[in-house]
């Protein structure tokens, strides 16, 4: 089922929790009280892989996990985050693990390319949080990101054998006010078949000579962020 809206929640853990303890406790709560809401299409938790910063034009994101949700309509996501179930159940149940209220980025997802995940794969996802280059209108940033840049990523030698999917979600308007604000102009999810596939892609001459320079044509590398994660589908 296709989704018309994606909402990504950016999580920071309480300082006294280790990364591993935070992820384990979050997933325990997901199993105990899973997210169920009208219009929810898909729900994925991303726990970060420590020490990874592959993208040249983005700093390491200062988040400890990302929750991606896809919805049939933008109004379905809005109804959920303004509901009693969100504030008094979902957020309360998980809030004791968080150092601050979640930040969020949302918009219409664009699945650029994907293939089926097989049992032989061990997928890892790069969550990209871009900030548009200041000299560009938002429409110019969006067009370059989901157009020329995405096609350049797919054109590299061996790229499609390493990739599982590319999904880009420009965010032309801020998320609901109940979340911590950010400067990000979207959220991207680049999934690779394995950690080795990710390393091969970002170590390639194509990335260094073609993709990395192109990142600077439409993003502000000093303000953009990225996080390498292990995806766990909770749908």
Automatic annotation (TrEMBL):
Extent of the signal sequence: none
Domain named EthD: residues: 138-221
Pfam families listed in its UniProt record: EthD
Domain of life of the organism encoding this protein: Bacteria
InterPro entries named in the record: Dimeric_a/b-barrel (IPR011008), EthD_dom (IPR009799)
Protein name, UniProt field: EthD domain-containing protein
Protein's organism: Microbacterium kribbense
């Amino acid at each position: 089922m296709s989704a018309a809206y994606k909402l990504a929640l950016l999580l920071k853990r309480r300082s006294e929790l280790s990364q591993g303890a935070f992820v384990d406790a979050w997933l325990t709560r997901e199993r105990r009280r899973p997210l169920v809401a009208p219009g929810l299409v898909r729900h994925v938790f991303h726990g970060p892989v420590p020490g990874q910063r592959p993208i040249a034009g983005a700093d390491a994101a200062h988040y400890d996990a990302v929750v991606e949700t896809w919805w049939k309509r933008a109004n379905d996501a809005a109804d959920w985050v303004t509901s009693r179930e969100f504030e008094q159940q979902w957020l309360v149940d998980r809030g004791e693990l968080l150092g601050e209220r979640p930040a969020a980025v949302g918009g219409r997802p664009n699945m650029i390319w994907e293939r089926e995940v097989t049992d032989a794969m061990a997928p890892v996802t790069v969550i990209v949080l871009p900030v548009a280059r200041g000299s560009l209108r938002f429409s110019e940033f969006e067009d370059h990101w989901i157009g020329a840049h995405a096609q350049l990523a797919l054109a590299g030698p061996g790229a499609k054998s390493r990739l599982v999917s590319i999904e880009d979600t420009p965010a032309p308007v801020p998320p609901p006010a109940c979340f911590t604000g950010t400067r990000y102009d979207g959220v991207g999810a680049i999934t690779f078949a394995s950690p080795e596939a990710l390393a091969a892609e970002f170590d390639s001459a194509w990335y260094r000579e073609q993709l990395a320079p192109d990142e600077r044509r439409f993003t502000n590398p000093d303000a953009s962020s990225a996080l390498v994660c292990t995806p766990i589908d909770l749908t």
